[in-house]
Specification:
Elements: H1 7-24, H2 28-34, H3 39-51, H4 70-80, H5 85-88, H6 104-115, E1 120-123, E2 139-143, E3 146-153, E4 164-176, E5 179-190, E6 196-200, E7 212-222, E8 226-227, H7 233-269, E9 271-272, E10 275-276, H8 281-310, H9 315-340, H10 351-360, H11 368-380
Parallel strand pairs: 1-4
Antiparallel strand pairs: 2-3, 3-7, 4-5, 5-8, 6-7, 9-10
Helix pairs in contact: 1-4, 4-7, 4-8, 7-8, 7-9, 8-9, 9-10, 9-11
The protein binds flavin-adenine dinucleotide.
């Protein structure tokens, strides 16, 4: 096994690291205070990301994207993950679900997303349907060549700063030998369509990348806006689920590296009882465990990303990676707070922000329990008689 990064990968990591440190870090306190990135600043950072060739690194080269493989993307995600999410999203990685665009959708949604001219959010969760995504009730009813959509979507990240919504609906029911089955249809919905209302929610984490409620009241959507096929909504979403889990893990590892560096520096220099606190075994062992778990999460992530490139990543492996990395970053930031002592509780000191941001990683890309459920089911499957 070759663990060496290629020259191009090293160059990308170095360039991105410099970009994140110089263009994103200086604005983190502002974004935290304002709970958002001022529009002028957002436009300026996005332009620099585009000029530096960092925008849409995950999209195919022939469409104007960076054409990176999953392994290289995970290295990039690690660097971007070091900065606050509100700023990190300005180095846009448009969702690959948009590759399902066809006909006019390509020029209307896909290409402008790759060029950084349009931005989407992804709306699945509802008040009555989170982990149990198939329980969604947002209804799309056919009316001639259009659909009329009614429902409510909850916690939708960045809906406030997006201009179109990838909207998941129920469009019918089919009879199967095992009983009735819902049919799901995904739409591309312009946010300024009459009947769409977006209301920001106040969350404790990832300021600037904020959750929103989307109310849909008699929204008319032409059938030309169906993404993929009518009645097969989840099949396109499933294709990129694993990628989301691996990139979340890379994000957690990047953030962990940043917090680890700050904490080690503090522990090596903060004195109590005449010596550095890192020299007390109670602190030193915490640091050792933090670093060990971080390394494990890093190796798991790289391995999963590599397997994605080979086409051999299983859903069990993607879930293992997600659950381990997301729980690792919470333990790591919690230990870091303990090592920073009273200072960690101060709002103007960033450690509490990393800890708050870490908490959502165990929830938003599937909860830890759902991932454990997937892993357990796949372990048991071959042995069931
Ligand atoms: C900040 C933020 C941003 C988000 N962004 C988006 C977005 O952009 N788009 C979007 O569609 N959604 C988004 N979400 C929603 C997110 O995907 C859901 O919160 C998540 O899937 C969990 O659903 P839920 O909150 O309804 O919790 P529930 O599903 O109600 O779960 C509550 C608890 O019950 C447990 N539980 C549920 N079922 C089982 C089971 N079978 N076995 C064991 N335990 C179980 C869960 O693990 C959890 O602990 C976001 C959420 C947050 C917090």
């Amino acid at each position: 096994m070759d663990f060496e990064l290629s020259f191009e990968q090293q160059e990308l990591v170095t360039a991105l690291k410099r970009f994140v440190e110089t263009e994103l870090y200086p604005h983190e306190d502002l974004v935290e205070r304002e709970r958002g990135v001022p529009p002028d600043l957002a436009a300026e950072i996005k332009k620099k990301a585009i000029d530096n060739g960092f925008y849409a690194m995950n999209m195919p080269e022939e469409l104007g994207g960076g054409g990176l493989d999953a392994l290289t993307l995970s290295l990039a995600e690690k660097e971007i993950g070091k900065a606050g999410s509100g700023l990190g999203i300005l180095i846009g990685r448009p969702t690959r679900i948009l590759l399902a665009c066809k006909d006019d959708q390509i020029e209307e949604y896909l290409m402008p997303s790759i060029r950084g001219e349009r931005k989407n959010c992804f709306a699945l969760t509802e008040p009555g349907a989170g982990s149990d995504a198939r329980a969604i009730t947002t209804r799309a009813v056919k009316d001639g060549d259009d659909f009329i959509v009614n429902g409510t979507k909850l916690y939708i990240s960045a809906a406030d700063i997006s201009d179109f919504i990838i909207l998941n609906t129920v469009s019918g029911v089919e009879e199967t030998p095992r009983g009735p089955r819902k049919l799901f249809t995904t739409f591309l919905l312009d946010k300024n369509t009459p009947g769409v209302t977006v209301t920001p929610m106040l969350s404790i984490c990832t300021h600037g990348y904020n959750p929103n409620t989307i109310y849909l009241e008699d929204v008319r959507i032409p059938k030309s806006k169906i993404l993929g096929e009518e009645g097969k909504g989840f099949s396109i979403a499933n294709e990129w689920l694993y990628a989301g889990r691996v990139m979340l893990s890379a994000h957690c590892v990047g953030r962990g590296e940043r917090v680890m560096e700050m904490t080690a520096d503090w522990a090596a220099n903060r004195k109590a009882f005449g010596k550095a606190i890192g020299d007390f075994q109670g602190t030193g062992f915490k640091l050792a465990d933090m670093a060990t778990e971080l390394r494990l999460a890093d190796l798991m992530t790289l391995n999963c990303a590599w397997k994605m490139d080979q086409g051999t990543l299983t859903r069990q492996e993607a879930s293992m990676c997600n659950v381990f990395a997301s729980e690792m970053i919470f333990r790591l930031t919690d230990n870091a707070m303990q090592i920073f002592g009273g200072m960690s509780m101060m709002e103007d000191f960033p450690i509490q922000r990393y800890w708050r941001d870490a908490r959502v990683e165990r929830i938003w890309e599937g909860t830890s329990e759902i991932h454990r459920d997937i892993i357990a089911r796949d372990i048991l499957k071959p042995y069931r008689k």
